[in-house]
Design brief:
Number of helices: 8
Strand order of the largest sheet: 3-2-1-4-5
Strand content: 15-25%
Order of helices and strands: EHEHEHHEHEHEHHE
Distance between the termini: 22 Å
Number of strands: 7
Largest sheet: 5 strands, parallel
Shape: globular
Structural class: alpha/beta
CATH class: Alpha Beta
Radius of gyration: 16 Å
Length: about 200
């Protein structure tokens, strides 16, 4: 069995991949709207971890729609959700048994509810896996501290390979200063390697 794990190079998606490794052939996949080449950071993290990597080309129209939602809402939830669901759909296009992500129990965005997961599974013939869905942030942080070599810092200082970074760039192109208005300050992570198998 093989699984495509949506991968940003951060601790959540890394822990998700590590937790699935005993049961699946894991491939780490990063979606890009073609806005930047930051996806290469995830590729390098995947190489350091010893996992195969694939880049998923995402539809730029979805990015435009997501940015419209960011601006209309004034917060990131629906825009990020739109991009995440599109990335899961694209991952399901790969010849895999399952698609997975690093969403946690207490994530605000993205989240995948049961109806969305079942729809993806029924329509696309894949299993949807969220191995961290039962873990809160504190538990994930403890696991990451015990297992991973991680850089953390404010979103603008950590180069990540995910669609959120590209949406931030597109938002800045559309409306200077909008990123600070829409996205709350929060920490991001980038995995440099595994400290304990």
């Amino acid at each position: 069995m093989d699984v495509a794990v949506l991968y940003s190079g951060g601790k959540d998606s890394t822990l998700a991949a590590l937790s699935l490794d005993p049961f699946y052939e894991v491939t780490l996949v990063t979606g890009t709207f073609g806005v930047s080449s930051d996806w290469r950071h995830a590729q390098r993290a995947a190489e350091r971890l010893g996992y195969p990597f694939r880049r998923l080309d995402l539809d730029p129209a979805v990015a435009d729609d997501a940015v419209d939602r960011l601006l209309a809402d004034g917060y990131p939830r629906h825009g990020i959700q739109r991009a995440h669901e599109h990335a899961l759909e694209r991952a399901a296009d790969l010849d895999v048994t399952a698609v997975a992500d690093g969403t946690r129990r207490d994530d605000r965005a993205p989240t995948v509810d049961r109806a969305t997961a079942r729809s993806l599974e029924d329509r696309r013939g894949v299993d949807y896996l969220a191995p961290l869905a039962g873990f809160g942030r504190r538990a994930v942080d403890r696991l990451a501290d015990a297992t991973l070599d991680v850089d953390t810092g404010p979103s603008e200082s950590i180069t990540r390979a995910d669609y959120e970074a590209e949406l931030r760039a597109l938002l800045t192109e559309r409306e200077d200063g909008a990123v600070d208005d829409v996205f709350p300050a929060h920490e991001q992570s980038h995995v440099r390697g595994v400290t304990r198998p």
